[in-house]
Design a protein that fits this description.
By secondary structure, the chain is an all-alpha fold. The protein has twelve helices and two strands. It starts with a strand and ends with a strand.
């Protein structure tokens, strides 16, 4: 008798990848949209400050369980620092250095390559041939897009440096969460993580920026979306998916972000993507399909 094993997942986890891809992709556009009216670290302090206030209020109302040990507190803070301060901080610096949304999102989609190389030793996972094939296709697609856009808006060396530092931040955060992260109440996890991010970026704002904020409707809309969409929904879903599945496969979802981000940037910011670049996006999307596809498992009894 042949039975097909099925894993029952809650509806929110089934929908999580689609919701995550949408909020994460539009987050790039919202960030660059808002950075025309405020300096990068000041923008992040505003963003994290609002989130910490929201989380603190929810914490007082819901009274969630606290981490049981100092190590648990430390792991939450480290993940928050890597994600909120290093990743988002250098993303914003890359934008202010002239990098386009599509180019930055493609460079950051290389995260699965790094995760695939490190994950087996770091978290005890294995990455099969199918995953490596998908990751290679994703890398090829990224190279095609960068070359196609080089004649229109070649990124500067400093913006590339910021992009790769951001890539290191999100890769480190994902691996740390997978290795040391345990299930915490989302209010507790977000409160600690964003508080750590706030502490991490605050000195850079005070030292390097003049704290000027040009309050416009564009900045207000951008800030609101980044708080609700990218931070509260996007980051929460990212950690939930990492805890629920293989870290390399979850990270491969980032290959789907660039085409969505580039399309939104074309609509909102008028950033041009040549036809060859869209072909590269398609190659990268095929990579994520291959890397994340799960075949049915059969048992013979």
């Amino acid at each position: 008798m042949t039975n097909i094993e099925k894993t029952d997942k809650p509806l929110w986890l089934v929908l999580a990848p689609s919701i995550f891809l949408f909020v994460w992709s539009t987050g790039y556009v919202a960030a660059k949209f808002g950075l025309g009216y405020v300096e990068p670290f000041t923008f992040l302090v505003l963003r994290y400050g609002v989130i910490v206030i929201i989380m603190a209020a929810l914490f007082l109302v819901l009274r969630p369980k606290l981490p049981k040990s100092a190590k648990d507190w430390a792991h939450l803070a480290i993940v928050g620092l890597l994600m909120q301060a290093v990743y988002f901080g250098f993303c914003y610096m890359a934008f202010t250095s002239g990098m386009a949304v599509g180019t930055l999102s493609l460079l950051l989609s290389l995260q699965p390559i790094l995760v695939g190389l490190v994950a087996p030793r770091w978290s005890g996972e294995t990455v099969g041939l199918k995953q490596w094939l998908g990751l290679v296709l994703g890398l090829l697609g990224a190279v095609i897009v960068i070359l196609a856009r080089s004649d229109i808006e070649p990124p500067t060396l400093i913006s590339f440096s910021f992009a790769f530092l951001a890539l290191a931040g999100i890769t480190g955060a994902s691996l740390w969460e997978k290795r040391f992260g345990i299930s915490h109440h989302p209010v507790t996890a977000n409160f600690v993580g964003f508080a750590a991010g706030l502490v991490g970026v605050l000195p850079f704002m005070l030292i390097f920026e003049d704290l000027t904020v040009n309050w416009t409707w564009q900045l207000t809309v951008s800030l609101a979306w980044l708080v609700v969409g990218s931070s509260l929904i996007g980051v929460g879903l990212l950690w939930a998916m990492i805890r629920a599945g293989d870290v390399a496969k979850v990270s491969a979802l980032f290959f789907m972000v660039p085409p969505l981000a580039a399309f939104c940037a074309w609509i909102v910011l008028d950033e041009i993507m040549p036809p060859l670049a869209w072909l590269g996006m398609g190659v990268a999307a095929m990579g994520v399909y291959i890397a994340t596809r799960k075949s049915n498992t059969r048992q013979i009894r």
